[in-house]
Structure to design on (222 residues):
């Protein structure tokens, strides 16, 4: 089955800096890659997603890149703010079978 | 607001007891998923239902069971509870095809 690895497990950045979280997947048939943000006391919320026919997608300060050949995808957050502090999960999915990475705890220091 | 409703928000009970967690999916979503999240851990997939039928099973203990009703709401039943079952339990729902899952805010289960 699909295996998703996520790195780093923790990430601390200074406010205004960029943050990058990387994920790799094992099943080349996976074709949908969402990213979730989980704040304390809340459920994971979808923040951006990308499908396998696209290499990059951007939404304001957040961007996701996908390299199908290497089977890895990354989340980029620019101009980080304290409210970006949360746990971020990547996922890889095919046919509604979605597997999650272990999560990255991002801390943005003011 | 994801549109997924979970009740109750908090549940405190004792070892050996049985509890039922409830989930109402987003309007129109046929798939419901259950996850367990222990302290500072990732999302452990338990089970998926699609339109009333079990679709996929993850690391779900035999003491746990779930069902999805004709109105598409789902219940997760946890029995013979142990201290290690203390965790956040999330429900998510999705539409047909390869679509994102939308999560509720979870039920925090504490076993004393």
């Amino acid at each position: 089955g699909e295996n998703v690895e996520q790195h780093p497990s923790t990430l601390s950045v200074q406010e205004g800096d960029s943050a990058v979280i990387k994920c790799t997947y094992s099943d080349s048939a996976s074709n949908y890659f969402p990213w979730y943000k989980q704040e304390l006391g809340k459920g994971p919320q979808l923040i951006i997603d990308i499908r396998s026919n696209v290499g990059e997608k951007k939404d304001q300060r957040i961007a996701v890149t996908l390299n199908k050949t290497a089977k890895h995808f990354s989340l980029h957050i620019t101009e980080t703010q304290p409210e970006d502090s949360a746990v971020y999960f990547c996922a890889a999915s095919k046919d509604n079978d979605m597997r999650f990475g272990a999560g990255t705890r991002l801390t943005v220091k003011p | 607001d994801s549109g997924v409703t979970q009740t109750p928000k908090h549940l405190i009970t004792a070892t050996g007891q049985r509890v039922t967690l409830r989930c109402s999916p987003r309007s129109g979503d046929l798939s419901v998923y259950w996850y367990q999240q222990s302290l500072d851990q990732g999302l452990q997939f338990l089970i998926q239902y699609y339109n009333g039928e079990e679709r996929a099973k993850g690391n779900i203990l035999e003491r746990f069971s779930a069902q999805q009703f004709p109105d598409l709401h789902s219940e997760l039943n946890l029995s013979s509870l142990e201290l290690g079952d203390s965790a956040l339990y999330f429900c998510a729902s999705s539409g047909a095809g390869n679509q994102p899952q939308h999560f509720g805010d979870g039920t925090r289960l504490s076993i004393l």
The interface with chain A takes residues 2, 4, 31, 42-43, 45, 50, 55-56, 90, 92, 94, 96-106 of chain B (CB under 8 Å).
